[in-house]
Design a protein that fits this description.
This protein is an alpha+beta fold and about 270 residues long. It has six helices and twelve strands.
């Protein structure tokens, strides 16, 4: 799809009060790139991009997840984009951003799906549809010229199971697989941006409402988990939701509760 048509279709999903933030000047559409997060970072560093800028790609060759895991999709089938989000001075609020982003992605997907489709968030950065992964999020931070979060999002939109390696076909899904038909990638961008633009890390009442919603759509809740921590140690227990600043709560076998702020990997016990 050509950039102008993509932009117009995405714009049509935005309410009028948010449309001024998504303009041709704040929108970059690429056919191929290594990583939209890297493109956005370079633009911010060079001063050619500013907060609210969006970079969308039809295909990226070096997309990645948290901890550098490679993430690549067939061209033209998924929504792959990054958004520059201005961060507040209060850095204690920053860890909430991945979860709040997850809510935005989950809500935008849910608006296109049947009401009986289970849309859930796996801490800290995945979206699951009916127990299969459909989207991933990578939030990175840049401090200059102004503190910004680079929010990278990949949503499986028109991907088919036949597009995936056999080892992933039982663990991944897409909007097309759940709906049985194709969806407009550009329109989904607009839907997702309409939620992302409303994130305000300093709006405590709004955050509490979001956390309530996220807790009610928590894929890990009540499951046994093996959490690999950044220092190489691990924690085994049962997931018990989230703390108010976004940490994962795990109850161990001795009924002690632990708050996990960062983890290398979270695996559900008994899963492959």
């Amino acid at each position: 799809m050509d950039p102008s048509t993509f932009y117009e279709r995405a714009s049509s999903a935005l309410p009028s009060e948010l449309a001024t933030r998504f303009t041709p000047e704040t929108f970059t559409h690429l056919q191929d790139t290594a990583s939209t997060n890297d493109d956005l970072r370079e633009g911010l560093s060079a001063g050619t991009f500013a907060p609210d800028h969006v970079v969308v790609a039809e295909h990226q060759t070096k997309g990645r997840g948290r901890r550098g895991d490679k993430w690549e999709a067939p061209p033209g089938k998924n929504l792959l984009f990054s958004l520059a989000h201005r961060l507040p001075a209060d850095q204690t609020r920053w860890p909430l951003l991945p979860l709040l982003t997850g809510e935005c992605v989950a809500r935008s997907c849910a608006s296109l799906l049947d009401s009986d489709t289970r849309v859930e968030i796996k801490w800290p950065n995945d979206i699951y549809l009916n127990d299969k992964k459909a989207a991933g999020i990578l939030v990175e931070t840049v401090m200059t010229p102004t503190p910004c979060a680079i929010i990278g999002i990949g949503i499986n939109v028109n991907l088919q199971l036949s597009d995936l390696p056999s080892e992933l076909q039982n663990h991944a899904t897409s909007l097309r697989e759940e709906l049985g038909c194709q969806s407009s990638i550009a329109f989904l961008l607009g839907l997702t941006l309409s939620h992302l633009y409303q994130i305000d890390l300093m709006d405590a009442p709004s955050i509490l409402c979001s956390l309530d919603w996220i807790r009610s759509h928590d894929w890990l809740s009540g499951k046994g988990v093996h959490v690999t921590l950044p220092d190489g140690s691990f924690l085994i227990g049962e997931a018990r939701g989230f703390a108010d600043r976004g940490a994962l709560i795990v109850e161990d076998s001795e009924n002690a509760f632990h708050q996990v702020v960062s983890a290398e990997k979270v695996t559900v016990l008994g899963s492959r």
